[in-house]
Amino acid sequence: MPKTPARMAAKSVPPSTITLKHVAERAGVSPITVSRVINTPDAVSETLRDKVTEAIDALGYVPNRVAGALASAKSRVVPIIVPSLSNIVFLEVIQGAQDVLNAAGYQLLLGDTQFDLEREQALANTLLGWSPAGMIIAGLRHTDRTRAMLKTWHRPVVEVMEYGTKPIDMNVGLSHYKAGDSMGEHLVARGYRNIAFIGCRMKVDYRAMQRFKGLERCLKRHDLPCRPPFSHDEMSSAELGGDALMRALDLDKSLDAIFFANDDLAIGAILRAQREGIAVPKRIAIAGFNGLNLGALMQPALTTIVSPRQRIGQIAATKLLARILGQQSGAATVDVGFSLRAGGST
Amino acid sequence: MPKTPARMAAKSVPPSTITLKHVAERAGVSPITVSRVINTPDAVSETLRDKVTEAIDALGYVPNRVAGALASAKSRVVPIIVPSLSNIVFLEVIQGAQDVLNAAGYQLLLGDTQFDLEREQALANTLLGWSPAGMIIAGLRHTDRTRAMLKTWHRPVVEVMEYGTKPIDMNVGLSHYKAGDSMGEHLVARGYRNIAFIGCRMKVDYRAMQRFKGLERCLKRHDLPCRPPFSHDEMSSAELGGDALMRALDLDKSLDAIFFANDDLAIGAILRAQREGIAVPKRIAIAGFNGLNLGALMQPALTTIVSPRQRIGQIAATKLLARILGQQSGAATVDVGFSLRAGGST
DNA sequence: CTGAAAGCGCTTACAG
DNA sequence: CTGAAAGCGCTTACAG
Fold first, then answer.
1. Which keywords fit this entry according to its UniProt record (chains A, B) (predicted)?
2. What are the residues whose beta carbons fall under 8 Å from the beta carbon of A211, sequence distance 6 or more?
3. Which of B38, B297, B309, B345 to mutate to test the interface with A (most CBs of A within 10 A)?
4. pLDDT digit string (tens) for B244-258?
5. B176-306 CATH, one of 2.40.40.20, 3.40.50.720, 3.20.20.100, 3.40.50.2300
6. Which of A151, A255, B130, B316 has an alpha carbon 20 to 30 Å from A41's alpha carbon atom?
């Protein structure tokens, strides 16, 4: 023991940080009992529990989560890794998860990969250093190392957004392929024959590509022409949607419908059509994906596919919690489905 | 020492978790040296550094952040506390902060208060248990205990969103009062005389109330009538904006302009006016606040006040980092200002 | 530039 | 139901 450890607080002044020990001393019990009152109150007699509670309040004790996490090798933290924070879609999932996890005393640790799987791997690796209780991660596509790392981790992991078989552990999402197919069916049923798909950054936004593939299957089934998707390099935005509409109409006069990869683009297209005096859906039908409320207020109302994003976050968090607490968590995979909301735009 | 500690790994099998010690053994150095290579590489000779780096890579060592945080009493985590995650405004601040902090190896810990200051206090208290390196918190209004707690904490704190004097520590934001006044001046200059303010949950969303107060001051200065604000209990949404517009026109036929507390409401109002055939701005002028890009695509384009939300997050994070690293962080308070974007809607 | 010792504030796994 | 001992995996503050 060093002669005068700098860390040793002078006995006469009140300690700068209140620890379990201080609470224990004041309550006249052992530190362990205090720990139990905090973590498993039912395991302590009412008498002691009251004494300890009094001491905690009197001293304003705040448990050191870091020490607890180190000793128990787990923390009440759950990382959520998403491709991007600028996309409303991921935010709603985060929101849903936050509601459930916060209520249960868990904190979300935020990570975004910028749609880069290598970055995702590095991030997951770092975040594991926090001994999280579980993890929520967007998508079913990861590097092999990320998959291996999370598989051998032996803590609950939920992959969210798209639905698929063989997740790392659990999965909550919907089939973007089927969603694309459904929208195709809708457009064909309404009589459109020359249908294009317009998206953004589809090399990395592979879920948008899946929606296109679904559309493609549908068009082939109906022996209709299938054009390759237009994929812009910029990020999705309403403004880009308007520009893309104009360019598409210019390049291919025969188009009678456009399925945009998301509502932002589609809403921008409708607004632009309004300004340019292009009749929707008479000259060109416009459809989106996501089911933003705003779409329903457009003139004409946007036809879109509604996905329950907040529910995805809630279900994911609920299943994660159940597993963390050792309870029944239900099926490993959940297809939350989607619904097509038909409006006047198609 | 217990006879057979359950935690002791059998010597023959590879350890389930790689620690500093394993790396040190493999590299033939002491654990401290490994720690130095990770945290202060310049303090280690190149020879040892290479050996250690090799060992880290070979073993796939991931530093246990929790242990590091406990030993050093600080972690590379920064909580960001906002009123709500459903509001785009806070998300953009989070995004800005995330970009800067992630790049520097810090993780954001997410907290939302649901606009409840008691909840904010409890949350801040809990999050302090993570020994964060600093904290970002929305708003300048907190409970006295929250303020006291953060003041005595002696780590950097940045309050964001609104600008004001006497922050807890640092502050980055804009004057919502001035913004309201500016919009008032704009409306008056364009000839409007009967101006109303419509917001949502203004008891808790006090920044919206500040914008109203700014408008009020302006109207008084011009000897114009000032109506009390309409404040709806529901959350802001485009749909509500449309409904609010109709109700306001119905209740007060003399209105010639409405300043909505945010663009969501204002955009909804413009879309509703379109559907109802109400001429904007001829019958009623409409203005918003936030500067969403979408507003510029409306017909007519929405007059609004642009606030640099992402920049607020970036500046806040940058100043926080500077202080964490013991560098110059510049002025304690930063007024990021705002600009009025006049469109055809007024 | 490098290392041996002690400790951060909790919880685990016993034992009673 | 309660507690004494040990340890979680790092870093701090010395000393050399």
1. DNA-binding, Transcription, Transcription regulation
2. A176, A177, A179, A180, A183, A197, A199, A259, A261, A289
3. B297
4. 999 999 999 999 999
5. 3.40.50.2300
6. B130
